[in-house]
Protein: F-box domain-containing protein
Amino acid sequence: MPTFPTELTDEIIAWIPVVCDRFSEMYRALLSCSLVCSAWLPASRHHLFREIHIDRSARYDLLVSRVLHSEKMRINLLSVRTVTIMHPGSPALNCRPFVLEFAGHLPNVTLMHFLYGGVEVFLSHPRSFVAISRFSSIQKLMINTDEFPSFGALRRTLTLLPSLADLTLWRPSWPDPPADLSPHLSHGASIVPRPALLSVNVRWGTDAPDRRRAQQFIAWLSETATSSSLLDLQATIDSTPGHQIGCMATFGLSLFRFGRVLRRLEIDVGESRDLPGQSISSSVFSHP
Structure:
């Protein structure tokens, strides 16, 4: 029976993540390929492990028992590039010490994505912060609609990731800051070299607590090394119909501190009274 060269089938399998629009579709296709024959298994596994989604306790437990604790399967963790953690309606995931168990075992992960409770899983163990720095290859962190136990927990997470360059924060929250924020919110951040971000994309709402969180975060970040390293800044507000609160009122004057080497700035500069909820975006480009 004639067979195709391994190089050809490996190349075909490598295109599956490119052409599949959804993760579930890609996963099923790669899983089917892995079952065709032993020659297709290595390439299929490599791409199956490039992206890991943890959304329930059963999936997490299988990953630990059948991969992390297996000498034969653990090598596949070297293929992981993206980890997504979410647990809508699955509070049991909070008991899983992800950071402690996987620290040092995901050396090639470049993107970490938390949404709908993923941060709680990531920081659930009291000693999580001790091991965060061992995720030294993470370059991009995305946090979507998630809650931190404190603003300090967010600060420590960002400063302990040594390679972090790209940050997306969409409606993160933590206990409501005081209404009268101190103008000095760095907590010593100006004397530490991290984070030194290249790209920041932040989105908050326009209610009073969200504005205070946005201003607290931007004021702190502006006093870190990011103030002299940031190239791309996007600041967006989720305004509700009838509210005319702009970007500067939401994020505060600390936005001006990022102008040293900034090449791209995109902010909401106004809202249309005729089209509630829509805004005009202003982009400023500069070239060295």
Summary: Confidence is low (pLDDT under 50) at residues 185-191, 271-282. Strands lie at 51-54, 82-86, 111-115, 140-144, 166-170, 199-205, 232-238, 264-271, 279-285.
